Amino acid sequence: MSPLSFDPGRFKEPAVHHLRRDLPLLRPGQTVEEALAAIRSHGLGERVIYFYVTDEKGRLLGVVPTRRLLTASLETAVGALMVGNVVSLRDDATMLEVFEAFHAHKLLALPLVAPDGSLEGVIDLGAISEDLFDSEARIQADAVFEAIGFELGRIRNLSSTQVTLIRLRWLLVTMASGLVCALLTAGFTATLAAGTSLAFFIALVLALGESTGMQTMTVTLQALHGVKPGRQWLLRSLAREVRVAVPLGLAAGLLAGSVVFLWLREPSTALILGSAVALSIGSACVVGLSVPAFLHAAGLDSRIAASPATLAITDVLTLAIYFLIASALIR
């Protein structure tokens, strides 16, 4: 099962229902040789990512990564290899809390502990998706490809034709926005002719808008985990984003305008660029928040569609703002 097909209803399930208890436990006083012998005697269970260290009462003390255990000398004490301050969850945690912990700490498994600190068991990514558990590299690859517009897990076993069609639809969105931007540029030919130096900064304005939009989109996608965005959520999020976007846009606009003024000694161009940067960053923040929120609320796959849609809308709005300000100030 792909992470994107995970049933949202399972978020409320108790994580203890997905615990694995078949793992070998180590003691801090054991040597590596003794620990390996104990592991061979106990067996590894279904799968082991980390080895957990407990005291005589079963209370969690630390964790030993598999690589560290296998590469240490046989006489080394387990306590010397152990990492303390283990990231763990309460035994009454929900699957939503598990998701959040995996996302925040980039771990492959998490221990659940009782109120007295005793280890109840371990929950790993297999409880979420068997497909994700082949290797950490595959998890990272899926995350990267999702961010740029398609999910690797969906295309891994498809034909080349099917893969091409999946990727093409998002490229078409980008192509469509590029054509709209070309039409906008053609419509303001006279403005560009009157202020030839404006053409120098089209790429700059677009890059700032895209970067801001993608940053906001990424933060919004993280905030949407396990959340159904309603009107109140959207208004609160917009208000918070505006408080960030206004000073950010003003600072970037002032900096860009100042650089252009010092470079070209053209006050009008500096004013146009500074104003366009400030407004485009503000609009990009709104787009980066609104697009994933709308897709999520509509039940669409926001992690796949948000990136190309955000970039496309941001590019068109940014270029329109730039040209409209330029045409208003150049007479």
Give a structural overview.
- The chain is mainly alpha-helical and 331 residues long.
- It folds into 2 domains: 3-133, Roll (CBS-domain), CATH 3.10.580; 164-329, SLC41 divalent cation transporters, integral membrane domain (Tetracycline Repressor, domain 2), CATH 1.10.357.20.
- 60% of the residues lie in helices and 8% in strands.
- The protein has helices spanning 32-42, 66-71, 78-81, 95-105, 136-147, 152-155, 160-187, 189-194, 202-223, 231-264, 267-297, 302-329; strands at residues 25-26, 50-54, 60-65, 89-90, 109-113, 119-124.
- A 3-stranded mixed beta sheet has the order 1-2-3. The protein has a 3-stranded mixed beta sheet with strand order 4-5-6, with helices on one face.
- Strand 1, helix 1 and strand 2 (50-54) form a beta-alpha-beta unit.
- Helix 9 (202-223) packs parallel to helix 11, helix 9 (202-223) runs antiparallel to helix 12 (302-329) and helix 10 (231-264) packs antiparallel against helix 11 (267-297).
Work out the helix count.
Answer: 12
Mean pLDDT: 80
Q: At the fourth CATH level, what is the homologous superfamily of the largest domain?
A: SLC41 divalent cation transporters, integral membrane domain
**Spans with pLDDT under 50 lasting ≥5 residues?**
1-8, 130-153
> What's the domain count?
2
The assigned CATH architecture of the largest domain is Orthogonal Bundle
Strand % is: 5-15%
Rg computed from alpha carbons, rounded to a whole number of angstroms: 26 Å
